[in-house]
Fold this protein.
Amino acid sequence: MKGTIFDLKRYAVHDGPGIRLNVFFKGCPLHCLWCHNPEGVAFEPELMLLPNRCARCGDCLRACSYGALSQNGDGLVRADRSRCTLCGDCVEACQREAIDIVGREVSVEEVVAEAEKERVFFEQSGGGVTLTGGEPLAQPAFAEALMDALREKGFHLALDTSGHASPEIFLRLAGKADLVLFDLKLMNEEKHKKYTGVSNRQILENLRALDLTGKPVWVRFPLIPGINDDGANLQAMADFLAGLKSVQQVNVLPYHRGGVEKFRRLGREGEFAVYEPPAEDRVQAIIDFFRTRGFRVKRGG
Ligand code: SF4
Ligand code: SF4
C-alpha cells in the first residue's frame, strides 16, 4: 500500500503531545485562502523553484528536454508548468538544490521504518506519529493501512484533520487514532464556503458524532484577522464546543505568512490570499475569551 506525501518531519513538537514524526499527506479537498502548507493542497507532485538559492547558472535549462524552463532578464529560472513532466532531470542537474519536486510516493513500510528510528524519542517524551497534511482522510485507504500498521507496533497516533470526509471514513479513521486534532475554522456556512471552498455542515456533524464516541479531541483554531476573529464567529464556536464532552483543549494558531513564499515557489500566488498577522494583544484577547468560557487553551499546536 502506497500513498503520496510531501514531507516526513522528525522532531515535530506542535502537532500532538511529545516529540512526533509528522507524516504530511499530499492533497486536500479544502482550499483555505490563508493556507500555511500550500504544497499540501494539490494531490499530485509539483515543481518548486527556490530562487533564493539559485546561482543563475542555467544547468537546469540545459537538462530539461521539454523546454519547460527559461530564465528571465535577471537570470532567475521560470517554469512553464504546462510543459513539465516532473521527470526530475533539472533537480538532478541543479547543484544548489534550487529546484525540487514536492510530493512523492511512500509505502506503509517505509513510514513505519522511519517511526521505528524515532521510537526512543517517542518513549521519552510521550510522543508518537501524527498524520497531517494536506488532508490524511483524502487518501483513506493509505491512511487506514498506515494507522493499522503503526498501531500494531504500539505507536501513539494523532490524526490532524479538517473533518471534511464522509461520516463513514471520518469515524472509522478517527477511531483508530489516540487523539484527533480537529481544525475548526469558521462557523458560518457561507463564509466557510467562501474562504475554504467547501461547506462546514458535514465537518460539524462529524465533530458532533466523534464526540459521542469519547475520542479525545484538540480543536485547532487558525486565527485569521478579519476572517474568523469577529465576535459572532468566536461566540458561535464557543457555544458549539461547550456542547461537546471530548474536547480537551483549544489550540489558537495565529496566522503567519509562512505559506506566502511557498505559493510563489509553486507558481500559485493567484490562488491564495495574504493577510496581516494578528497583533499580540488580539491573540491574547482571543485566548482569554476561550479561557473565560472554561476551555483549556494553548497558543500554537
Ligand atoms: S541549475 Fe539550479 S542554480 Fe542553476 S539556474 Fe537552475 S535552479 Fe538556478
Ligand atoms: S522536472 Fe523535467 S520536465 Fe519538469 S522542468 Fe524539470 S527537467 Fe523539465
Q: What stands out?
A: The radius of gyration is 20 Å. The chain has two domains: 2-43+103-299, 46-102. DSSP finds eleven helices and 13 strands in the chain.
